[in-house]
């Protein structure tokens, strides 16, 4: 697909971007999803990085989005700032046409231009390695609980950015504010979709 526009989000896009996010994650990992509420919370948070977050537009329609936030690694008593993003998502009707890759590639390029050094995420373990991400055990970075697993990955925007950074990763506290009752209430702003328990969900 070559008519994809990657651009900053406007207020007028908020509903469409969140509804697209809801459709991308609905019943994917759990019955329902909370990622559209996460996008809503981030826009009001000091941790949100608007200068890197982007939506994808095709024929005037919002079909994808990537939302960046501030995170850090505690290396002893040294705090090292890193980027985190999430959600990254594409409208189910437009997946596997290069839109996710383009959102990722263009925002990483932008982050490099703006002087950011590295990214750490929790994400799809089979998707991000295609875009150069490595599991964080490669870098000597663990979760805040001292763990490593396939979904916990990093990317050096600048070569060897993590060479002398070792320690525990902390993402924005916004991820801990996804209270089910608030998500349920916020979800009423969007067209109804049925929550289903499906094979392959995490729980
Ligand atoms: C994951 C997602 C962002 C990828 O965006 P996309 O535009 O569909 O993907 P692209 O066109 O850039 O890339 C397609 C490639 O990625 C692979 N891919 C797509 N989704 C994948 C997934 N969830 N896990 C592993 N690989 C995936 C495709 O098989 C394809 O592989 P190929 O190039 O070897 O044929 C999108 O599918 C999505 O929104 N999924 C639902 C929400 C989600 O899981 N988001 C990521 C959370 S961390």
From TrEMBL:
A Pfam family reported for this protein in Swiss-Prot or TrEMBL: Acetyltransf_7
Lineage: superkingdom: Bacteria
Alphabetically ordered keywords of this record: Transferase
UniProt entry tagged with the keyword Cell membrane: no
GO terms assigned for molecular function: acyltransferase activity, transferring groups other than amino-acyl groups
Residues covered by the N-acetyltransferase domain: 4-158
Signal sequence annotation: none
Protein name per its UniProtKB record: N-acetyltransferase
InterPro entries in the record: Acyl_CoA_acyltransferase (IPR016181), GNAT_dom (IPR000182)
PROSITE patterns cross-referenced by the UniProt entry: GNAT (PS51186)
Protein species of origin: Anaeromicropila herbilytica
């Amino acid at each position: 697909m070559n008519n994809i526009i990657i651009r900053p989000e406007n207020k007028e896009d908020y509903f469409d971007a969140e509804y697209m996010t809801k459709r991308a994650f609905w019943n994917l990992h759990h019955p329902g999803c909370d990622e559209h509420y996460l996008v809503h919370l981030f826009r009001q948070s000091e941790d949100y990085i608007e200068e890197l977050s982007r939506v994808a537009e095709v024929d005037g329609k919002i079909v994808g989005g990537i939302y960046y936030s501030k995170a850090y690694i505690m290396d002893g008593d040294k705090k090292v700032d890193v980027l985190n993003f999430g959600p990254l998502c594409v409208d189910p009707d437009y997946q596997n046409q290069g839109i996710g890759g383009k959102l990722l590639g263009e925002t990483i390029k932008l982050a490099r231009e703006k002087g950011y050094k590295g990214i750490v995420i929790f994400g799809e373990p089979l998707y991000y390695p295609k875009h150069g991400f490595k599991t964080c055990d490669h870098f000597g970075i663990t979760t805040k609980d001292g763990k490593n697993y396939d979904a916990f990955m990093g990317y050096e925007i600048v070569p060897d950015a993590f060479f002398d950074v070792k320690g525990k990763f902390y993402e924005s506290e916004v991820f801990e504010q996804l209270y089910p009752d608030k998500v349920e209430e916020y979800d009423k702003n969007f067209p109804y979709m049925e929550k289903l328990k499906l094979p392959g969900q995490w729980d």
